[in-house]
Amino acid sequence: MSEDTIRLVTIGRILRRRWRLLAVVAVVGALVGYGASVLFPPRYTTSASVLLSGQWEERELLTQGQIAASSAVVDRAAAALAWTGVSGAELRDRVSATAADGNIIKISGTADTPQRAQQLSDQVAKEFVTFAARIAGDSTDPEAEAGPEALRQKVVQTNRRITDLAEAADPGRTVESVQARTELEKLRTALLEAMNKLDEADPASTKAGMVVMGPAARPTGEAAPTRLQLIVAGALLFFLLAVIGHLAAARMSRRLRTEAEIAAALGSALLGTVDVPGERRVQRPTGRGPRAWVRRLLGLDTRWDLPAPQSSGGETGRQLRYRRVCTRLRTQLPAARGLLVVVPDGDEIAHRAAGQLVAEAGSDPSPGSSGRGCPALRRVGVSVSRPLVPDRDTESGAVVVLSAGSWTAEELAGIAEACADAGHEVVGTVVAGPVLARPARPAGRSRDRAVPALAVGDGAKGGSG
């Protein structure tokens, strides 16, 4: 598993090198979202408001909201609407009620057409008002209304009788008449207080007044999620999954990226790192056939997790790195007659580096000269899946040349075992990396810049002479 921190530059590299694949994945996600919108038909939602008169506590409003969305109310609304193929149980999933500020119950209905959504909300609101009035006692049942009304009539008659008795009594001439008038007034006051308490205790007089605040508005747009929202959500979801998949693959990658890890996997010493000049665009493998064409079209034929090539230090610096590798080989193996340069197949950068290394070793002084020359090098390509190295002949060892971030420890161990089976000891490892070659300056421009210096020199010389 790679321990590299996921940074914005990594995501930017994914977007830059995999934009074609991400675009195709986003289009597929949009098509999936469109398919989901076809499977789930559009829905329309509207609301009707019911005003509750009087003073209500919060928990009482919540109770009224639950009553508005209960089966007792919705089933009555379903029976009144009589929609074909729609039962009360199905409508209960489409109706909701919430308690809003100001003693208002907001009843929402959802249907497949705007007209049906409006009818459903209005009918449920109407049935809720009727049902709540019946619970509170405000109904048309004559037996329920006869008791309180008869009691009020009796109280009125009693008040009239008390008035008649008070007028018939001797108006204050005797003590008995004064006491009688006082007792009659006390009786009148007690009756009035009892009627007031009865009116206050009657729920129909305080909380049965519910009013539907007009018909529900006909919806003009679909309820969420709309078809456009599903399409956008599908494209965005697939796009994010593709990016996360790339990051997870890079996180779980076992390819070796550092020189120390590569040398340890091959069981040899690191001879050095060399630079291979190349273009800014990553080298694409050549392949034919529909599969290769699709991979090239989507950008899957190039590695996205490799860092961008750094600027080169110039041809002199690159040659110096190859010379140092030859020097280390000459120092470690002074008597070696020849070495194999083993390069994994498919590693274009390593192949170019191996060719340059072989050319540099050939230009070294020969053993017969005054200095000890670099051992003769012969480049050999091996398959990583089934590595096979030529048997030992004139060579006395092998040098493995490869690029960083391309191979796992198991693959490199297989190459080392193949070298050992052929009788070659891996004497060193060379890691190659791509760099951006500096553009060569035109010869005319450099010549023009050199002319003034020569002129100054000639003039100075002629002046001194």
TrEMBL record:
Keywords: Cell membrane, Membrane, Transmembrane, Transmembrane helix. The keyword Cytoplasm does not apply. Its main location: membrane. InterPro entries: Bact_polysacc_biosynth/exp, LPS_length_determ_N. It is a multi-pass membrane protein. It comes from the Bacteria. Pfam families: Wzz. Residues 440-465 are annotated as: Disordered. It is found in: Cell membrane. Residues 4-70 form the Polysaccharide chain length determinant N-terminal domain. The chain crosses the membrane at residues 21-40, 228-249. Belongs to the CpsC/CapA family. This is Wzz/FepE/Etk N-terminal domain-containing protein. It comes from Streptomyces monticola.
